[in-house]
Amino acid sequence: MASVPSEKFREIYNFAFVWAKEKGQKSLALETAIGMWQLLFAEWHWSLVDHWCQFLQLKHNKAISRDTWSQLLEFAKTIDLQLSNYDEEGAWPYLIDEFVEYLTENGIVQRPRN
Amino acid sequence: MSAQKRRTFKIEAFKHRVEIDPKYAERTWKVLEHAIHEIYNHNASGLSFEELYRNAYNMVLHKYGEKLYSGLVTTMTGHLKEIAKSIEDAQGSLFLEELDRKWGEHNKALQMIRDIMMYMDRTFVPSSGRTPVHDLGLNLWRDNIIHSSKIQSRLLDTLLDLIHRERKGEVINRGLMRNITKMLMDLGPVYQEDFEKPFLEVSASFYSGESQQLIECCDCGEYLRKAEKRLSEETERVSHYLDSGSEVKITSVVEGEMIANHMQRLVHMENSGLVNMLVDDKYEDLARMYNLFRRVTDGLLMIRDVMTLHLRETGRQLVSDPEKLKDPVDFVQHLLDEKDKYDLIISKSFNNDKTFQNALNSSFEYFINLNNRSPEFISLYVDDKLRKGLKGVSEEDVEVVLDKVMMLFRYLQEKDVFEKYYKQHLAKRLLSGKTVSDDAERSMIVKLKTECGYQFTSKLEGMFTDMKTSVDTLQGFYASQHAEIGDGPTLAVQVLTTGSWPTQPSAPCNLPTEIIGICEKFRTYYLGTHTGRRLTWQTNMGTADIKATFGKAQKHELNVSTYQMCILMLFNSVDRLSYKEIEQATEIPASDLKRCLQSLACVKGKNVLRKEPMSKDIAEDDAFYFNDKFTSKFIKVKIGTVAAQKESEPEKQETRQRVEEDRKPQIEAAIVRIMKSRRVLDHNTIVTEVTSQLQSRFLPNPVVIKKRIESLIEREFLERDKADRKLYRYLA
Questions:
Q1: Which segments constitute the Cullin family profile domain (chain B) (predicted)?
Q2: Which residues in chain A are contacts of B703 at CB distance < 8 A?
């Protein structure tokens, strides 16, 4: 797995949300969010970013909340690509829970059975 | 005389020891020895107690206690050995009798001897640490008779044999048995060691064998009857000729062999086990099983578990069987009957055992909630009862029925769904005037309020208030109109407070000119006395009574819905109307319009309109005619749809959606309440707390709770902790 993103990267990432959204709106339009993610995760590589964007377009189709945005980085940072350390009781935003379900149901990730 | 010194009088002891003559001691002993012989030979009458006592006393006094004591031992032992022989020689049944007789004699002898030796007993015995005479006599009996090699095992075998025969049905000499066991008890631990222990072992193997036999050939009920009988036999046996301390031991042996070892097999016995007994209401058998099983470890647990499993399974089948679900009222009645059945069983057979009550409750709670239509169906059941089911029923019986319904209500996890349906059904009942008893309605509200609090019922009560107020309003209206109304149609209005009633807002349709006049008059009157309010006619909820004249001057009075009235009135000016024309003229929404037309034209006995083509369904190019040829044997014909029915699938979805929507703010309110007081909490704790706060109304979905938390984060009521992402903070 790629190295841990730097503190600077995190700051830039979280700033990107505020910068990219429309003034007066609380959430970030989906298309814009996807564009930003493609950009950002080119800097620090997260291999699931394409699946994430696909999933959102398929199942969500709505704006992205700030909490979801910032928690996604945590998710990408901490959870390994087999999702073996993903905890359903881990207080992840529900969108991320659904993403995990999407990955497992479609066989994209084989979660190790424990 | 000169004064002389007075000498104190002194008595001095002998300067030499005075010994009693040993020959004297020997002579004295011989007297006593002879006496003992006489006593054992039943010749005591010739002896002088006083003399013998004195002799024994003297011996002890003169320090010959030792000689006396050992002499006693030797003499008694000698006699006992003879006695042993005579007992050993006894044949067959005389054995016990001889033993008993000799024991009695020995005791008598011992008493006399003890009396004679009392001084020794009180002085020499304690100071030399010897066994007192009475106990000595018992010990000697024990050692020389009971533990004699020729007697010991024979005695035990005889006793056990007699008990065995009695168990097999023979009558034995209980009095004799009593004496023998009493003898053993008197001998200290002899009873437990020599008799009781082997007795219990032999009994265990007896009952082990018997229970094996019985379990093969008896059904459960029979077996339990036999076990119960054996238990009472053993208790009776103990009371007659065994030590009372043996009772708990022997009963525990029987319980172990007959019940504990076969519990599993008995309970699950095909065609006669626990489940069969429950199904067939075999109160006696069940009571017996309960009383027997409670004596063994985990006996009741087993009964309870099997009952629970059975209940859950039958319950599950009941709530998933489409046949049973066709009629909601029937369905609920089944539930109530099932509950009654088990309440009766628990009361009659299970001693009102609380743990069984709890198992019953938890099973009901489990399967009632398996079907998510249960709240709707229970409300429909109440609706049916309040509409007609409780007609003519006494006040107390009404209470009984409503209390039973409340009991089912308590099991519901989704009480808010019930509330929604109850409101709907209540509204229909109130507006159509179809309630059997106002008191019963009120009583139900009170019960719901007691159970769920004021908030649950405040809107329902609002509905009742509206009904009452409307009556007053209407009176006021007619009083104010005086003679102006004349021949026109009479209007009855109910003014409903929006928010209390489950109305679906819909635009009013076009009312016929015949009634517009009076409707407007009412509106003016009402708004005159209630400025600032807005009135909207709910044309989808009203009814009308129309006088219609058909072909052969037949007059009928039709009771229809408001929509139907609007449609029918159109035919006063024309004979034929197309679907489209009707739709345009009335502006009734399409789905409602189709349903109305169907009930006006396609139902036998109610077809006041004729449709072309004659098909069952309403198509947009159908044409409708006033049916001159309509006949009915009733003068008053009812056509409107009024009674509450179970919802169709789409309606059900809609209601459920509304319920889910209503839950969101409740969940949010709970989250905010909790976070406000706790300030910082982790995710799982919030979920637990919210669930526990709301469980009296419904069971919140953890996913929904999570979404609400996120919504609250977005609206900046909460935030995630910077260090630990699983913690949330309350933002003031």
A1: 373-601
A2: 94, 97
Residue located via tokens 């659904």: A98
CB B306 within 8 A of CB B277: no
Residue B485, pLDDT above cutoff 80: no
Inspect the interface and report whether the beta carbons of B683 and A89 lie closer than 8 Å: yes
For residue B677, pLDDT over 90 is answered with yes
Q: How confident is the model at residue B666 (pLDDT cuts 50, 70, 90)?
A: very high
**Degrees (nearest 5) of the Cα angle B716, B717, B721?**
80
Spatial separation of the C-alpha atoms in residues A6 and A14, rounded to whole Å: 13
Does the global pTM surpass 0.80? no
Q: Does the distance separating the beta carbons of B707 and A90 come in below 8 Å?
A: no
- Model pLDDT, residue B17: 59
Tokens for A3, please give them: 């190295």
- d(C-alpha B521, C-alpha B481), whole Å: 9
As a whole number of angstroms, the distance between CA B477 and CA B473 comes to 6
Helices (H), B89-219: 94-116, 118-122, 124-128, 133-141, 149-167, 174-186, 190, 197-217
Q: Where exactly are the structural domains of chain A?
A: 7-105
**Which residues of chain B lie closer than 8 angstroms to A66, CB-CB?**
713-714
Peptide bond into B613 cis (omega under 30): yes
**Is the confidence at residue B47, as pLDDT, over 80?**
yes
Asked if A89's CB is within 8 angstroms of B714's CB, the reply is no
A-chain residues near B714 (CB < 8 A): 26-27, 65-67
| Whole-complex ipTM | 0.89
Q: Regarding the domain delimited by A7-105, which CATH topology (the fold level of the hierarchy) does it fall under?
A: Recoverin; domain 1 (1.10.238)
Q: Which of A25, A74, A94 is the best residue to mutate to test the B interface, defined by the most B CB atoms within 10 Å of its own CB?
A: A94
Residue B571 CA neighbour count, 13 Å, CB half: 23
- pLDDT digit string (tens) for A3-29? 677 888 889 999 999 999 888 888 999
Distance (Å, rounded) from C-alpha B325 to C-alpha B330?
A: 8
CB contact under 8 A, B710 and A94: yes
Report CB contact under 8 Å: B725, A71: yes
Q: Which residues in chain A are closer than 8 Å to B710, comparing Cβ atoms?
A: 65, 67-68, 93-94
Residue corresponding to tokens 């023998």: B180
Q: Which residues pair with B88 in a beta bridge?
A: none
**Yes or no, beta carbons of B714 and A26 under 8 Å apart:** yes
